[in-house]
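We both want to read discrete structure tokens more fluently, so let's practise on a single case. Would you supply a protein for us yourself, any chain you care to pick? Would you write everything just below, so we can both look at the same thing?
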Amino acid sequence: MTFKAPDSLSEQIADYLAERIIRGELAPGERIQEQKVTQALNVSRGSVREALLILERRHLIAILPRRGAHVTTLDERSVRSLCALMGEFYILLGNAVAQRWRTESDLMPFMGIQRRLQEAHASTDIKTFVAESFAVMRAAYPFADNPYLQETVENLQPAMSRAYYLALDQRQANMLDYLELFDRLLAAVVARDLPRIREVLTAYCQRSCELVLAALART
């Protein structure tokens, strides 16, 4: 594989490796060697080194002295911690949309995501379904207008994608559950019902956490 667009080369490499980690092609604890990645992707070692730093910031790898870069592990503590934190971020974003949308056009991006989620469910397209699930957050960023929240969520999103993908891929989670949740969430946002938003998202994160842990128990 050869990448272009040198201005974003490190990000492209990081995205490529992140996708492999999220899909389980790079296993927990597996070492990622700079030289091998450099040769496989036909890129510079400096770009690979920068990409690994990006992946470390996204909590997908750990870089240890004299041991190099290794894929992080998923265990009960990390999954519960991640789900609890992301749940609060989801609530902040959901509340921001509910409080600040003004016209129907403001909600059109979310309607589009809802349609694409339905299409991904119909075709059992796990990769697209997970991607569209997180597209909801990005559609909410302009309403929150909080760069610190956005940066934190973006750095945690790949780790959460990895957990969701594991649950869906092992059939411990049903995509229909996610669709039904999104329908309820969207209805609460349209109604500007903040307590309902918290209720829906808290239950969703608890449910998701248990599904991921059930999937982990099967690995």
Summary: The first strand starts at residue 31 and ends at 32. The domain at 76-218 is CATH 1.20.120.530 (Four Helix Bundle (Hemerythrin (Met), subunit A)). The chain is about 75% helix and 5% strand. Residues 76-100 form the longest helix (25 residues).
